[in-house]
Amino acid sequence: MEPMAKTNISLSGEAAQEGAAVQRRSRSSHKPLDPDTADAFVRRLCYLLDTEDFFGKYASFTPQAKIAKQFLASAEDKSKSEFNCAVSPEVRHQVPLVFQAVAGVMEEKSGVIVQSTAEINGEGFGRGLLYTGRVILVLRSLRAGFPFPFTAEEKVIRYGVECVEEGLAFLHKYKEITALHGLLSLEG
């Protein structure tokens, strides 16, 4: 029994080393973003922020400044959210805006109406859902608010563009599968 135990220990050690190497590589290397999609996402997010700016306080700001002032959470808010697992009202405000902006970009690029539903409770658990008709295009679970709150514009844009690309890829795949009967004609 002893040789078998030593083999299992050595195998689990090798697997842990390989897993750590993969994890390190995946964090440092990011796929380059499509600049058109990133610009469309920033534009949509700024439109949504402008609709809430009733008195035009931020009307003269650049898109980057609008996102920084109206949307991003401060470092203190992020540390407070991580400490007690309770999310602030600012974070609860970020979640639906991101998914609405993603839905708008997907509509522009695909020509299909895309709806968004996003919810997050006070403890940071929730989901973001993008769908068209009866087809779910993107479903993201939020655990303890992760990846929210965003503290940098680059992270917001990367998250939004990744959601757009995921949803469009699934929509394209689903259209190919249902080309004979149409996208929304399946009976369930």
UniProtKB/TrEMBL annotation:
InterPro entries to which the protein is assigned, alphabetical: NifX-assoc_nitrogen_fix
**What's the domain of life for this entry?**
Bacteria
Region of interest (Disordered), residue spans: 1-35
Its protein name is Nitrogen fixation protein
